Amino acid sequence: SRQCGYCFFDKQMSINMSENIKDRLGLENDLVTAVKNNEFELYYQPKISCITQAVTGVEALIRWHHPTRGLVPPDDFISIAEDTGQILQLGNWVLDESMRQQREWHKAGLTIPVSINISAHQFNADDLMMNVSEMLVKHGCDPAMIELEITESMLLGNADKVNQTLHQLSAMGIKLALDDFGTGYSNLAYLQKYPLDILKIDRAFLGDQTRSMLMGTILDMGRVLGLKVVAEGVETKAQVNWLVENGCDQMQGFYYSQPLPVAGITDYLISYCTPDALKHKAA
Ligand code: C2E
Ligand code: MG
Ligand code: MG
Ligand code: MG
């Protein structure tokens, strides 16, 4: 704890708070150059079928190579970029780069769906549809190979607009996933109302017995609603066994792989590739 001479009021918490504010302002400034210099990279994490153990897709997860801080995780800068509006440019870059990569893999014989996280700002922007379709055309991507991940809070806006956006995306052939399900304002009505394809259950539901019971209920609900259910944050063999036994569709987590840079995930995809499917050996 610091001494400041004439002042005995130096609670660690207020120091931490002002450090955090300085940190945030620093990152906010640095983001301007980062966007200009393209200091970002997409990592990819595989999703695995509970039934066949095949790789069913990969999720693109952004990383920032900060010139002095090193690798900055998205939780440290996405919300800042949201506040400043830079997320629109950044989000467009993510669409561009992940679709380019999907197409490159396809041309190399690895046809794999790619999931892309969409921010609230992006989701509400009037040009989302145009940006998505432009990128699809630019890279010649099959829309069925693209999944967009949105979160529950994005469904809370103007219901007509949300409905229109989701229906337009869905009509393009894109798959829609509800990310971090269970952590937000979970209104079961919109699971039925909106054209969603996939529920991604937050990793908070993997844990003790009570959470497993809740997970079981969510799996049942997904089945009733005809949604594919993906369990996030799978870290242990015991969790894998439980999810397989309880009828989960897909799993994603460190048990299978950390998010990897392109070279690493490409090797991963190739090593689980059989003539007709991308099989996972750990079955
Ligand atoms: P998310 O979309 O829910 O992504 C899953 C996060 O969980 C990732 O963190 C991933 O690395 C982490 N994870 C995966 N498996 C495990 C596991 O077994 N255990 C644990 N403890 N964690 C696991 P990451 O990459 O740091 O991303 C954090 C969040 O940042 C994402 O959560 C997403 O909301 C956001 N994000 C990432 N990339 C983008 C992007 O390109 N655009 C936008 N708008 N948001 C992004
Ligand atoms: Mg996600
Ligand atoms: Mg998630
Ligand atoms: Mg998350």
Automatic annotation (TrEMBL):
It comes from the Bacteria. Coiled coil: none annotated. Residues 24-273 form the EAL domain. This is Putative signaling protein. It comes from Granulosicoccus antarcticus IMCC3135. The chain holds residues 398 to 680 of 680 of the full protein.
